[in-house]
Amino acid sequence: MAQEQVTPLAAWVKELEEELTRVAGDRDAFWSRAEEATTSSKALTGQLGAEQGAHLLAKGALAEALKCEAELEKEASRAVEASRVEVEGWKEKAEASRVETQHWKEKAEASRVEAQRWEEKTEELEKEVTRVAEASIAVQVVLEAEIGEHDALKSAARTVCEALERALAVISSHYAGIDLKAISDGYVLLDDDKEADKEVAKLMESAEGPGTALAKLFEEEVVPPPPSADAGDLEP
Questions:
Q1: CA-CA distance, 18 to 10, in Å (whole number)?
Q2: Nearest-angstrom CA–CA distance, 167 and 160
Q3: Whole-number Å distance between alpha carbons of 143 and 141
Q4: pLDDT in tens, the chain (236 residues)
């Protein structure tokens, strides 16, 4: 853009130089006329009466030529100064244009850096979202496993409770008037811990065989049957 602005200025300076050349030619022409007038005045010096008038005339012509030359020099000086001011103005405009261009380049670079920074942040967020999603899936798997274990424990506890209820019912059927509430309070043992442990061991040993037989008896009633092959396809 600065080059486009300087090109008209160069053409104008060239025109000004041509004008100065023309003015210099006119000045030389005036000098030539002045010299001719001087020569004429010298030639007429010897003439009677008219020599003085011719000399004065030549002197006036020379003075006029010098006056014109001074005016032309002043005009040329004004033109040169105007040209210098104009050139300076175009230089300032070109510098302002260069500064503006540099400013926009800096803004474009800043925008590019900002866009790069946001792109990196976006990539980081996407990675973080992926990590969170993977962690969420892992937590969901663990949670489902714990829920399954909890349900299994609840089912086992429910099975044990049902077995105990059936065992107490069997005992009641063998011993009329037995105090089931007292049985639910636990063992009736001595205060000595060692003796109590020995007594519990004896009771467990004596109850092992009958307990196994009773458990087999209750197995089909208390323990739920295993799921069939198509059970996983059924809606809960």
A1: 12
A2: 10
A3: 5
A4: 545 555 666 677 777 777 778 777 777 787 787 777 777 766 655 565 555 665 677 778 778 888 888 888 888 888 888 888 888 888 888 888 889 889 898 988 998 999 999 999 999 999 999 999 989 899 989 988 989 888 888 877 777 777 777 777 777 788 777 777 777 777 777 778 888 888 888 878 877 788 777 777 776 665 555 555 454 444 44
The length of the chain in residues reads 236
Residue 168 contacts residue 180 (beta carbons within 8 Å): yes
Burial 21-52 (b: 16+ CB within 10 A, else e): eebeeebeebeeebeebeeebeebeeeeeeee
Name all contacts of 19-23 with Cβ < 8 Å and 24+ positions apart. 19/79, 20/76, 20/79, 20/80, 23/72, 23/75, 23/76
Structure tokens at 214: 């009773």
Measure the CA–CA gap between 98 and 92, rounded to whole angstroms: 10
Residues 6 or more apart whose Cβ sits within 8 Å of residue 66: 34
